[in-house]
Amino acid sequence: MSAAGNALRVVRLLHEHDELRVLEVAARLGVARSTAHRILAMLVFEGFAEQDRHKVYRPGPALRAIRGSRAAPPPDLITLARPHLQRLADIVRETTHLTVLEGNATRFLDGVEGPQALRVTHRTGALLPAHVTSGGKALLAELPPERLRMLYPNGLPGGKSKAPEDVQRLVAELTTVRRAGWALNLQESERGVNAVGACVRDRTGRAVAAVAVAAPSARCPKGRLNRLASPLLLAARDIGQEL
């Protein structure tokens, strides 16, 4: 009962304050730092909390859903991003997407199709495994390795072997993504489609969404994707500055 009570108190604290650190939780509950860390780790695993790259805990998707309207992305995110998605699509002449992370999946919030006859359609509303999308990888790369492993306790979804090595390979790939500043999807979410994605950061530096450019693989091999990263990063920066 004591453990359950402490967990519920932390959920209430997250609801009231929107961000917490381990030391703050330990002080408020009157428990050891290791105990506070275990409680927060359990809430992260269950989706009630999220941890950013600064080791700050915030309300997770499960808590945001309970909070009702606050579960949705900020209402101005899609509106602010739309002209930047359009401008990016005009510049690169390919389809652009705006996505967010939902657990270990990627939610497509908006998209602008490229002007060419052979193009990738937008996927607005779709939910795909984050580890096979460029925007999803960019956002996963922001998570600490221990948090990442919590998202995949049974291996990667859709994998045949469900081997722990699959998650370890993903961790290694995301390390490269973090260094580069963008992520690639080479026909991983759909055959014949390649994409490059990068994080949108708010003014505190926290990744809140991702922007991606998707194109037919025949026209956009890996080399061209790397060249598209430059205008993509500029668009992601411009959206973040308006948040």
TrEMBL record:
Keyword terms, alphabetized: DNA-binding, Transcription, Transcription regulation
Organism: Streptomyces violaceochromogenes
Domain IclR-ED: 55-243
Identification of the protein by name: IclR family transcriptional regulator
Upper classification of the organism: Bacteria, Bacillati, Actinomycetota, Actinomycetes, Kitasatosporales
Family matches, as SMART domains: HTH_ICLR
HTH iclR-type domain span: 1-61
Keyword DNA-binding on entry: yes
UniProt xrefs under InterPro entries: GAF-like_dom_sf, HTH_MetabolicPath_Reg, Tscrpt_reg_IclR_C, Tscrpt_reg_IclR_N, WH-like_DNA-bd_sf, WH_DNA-bd_sf
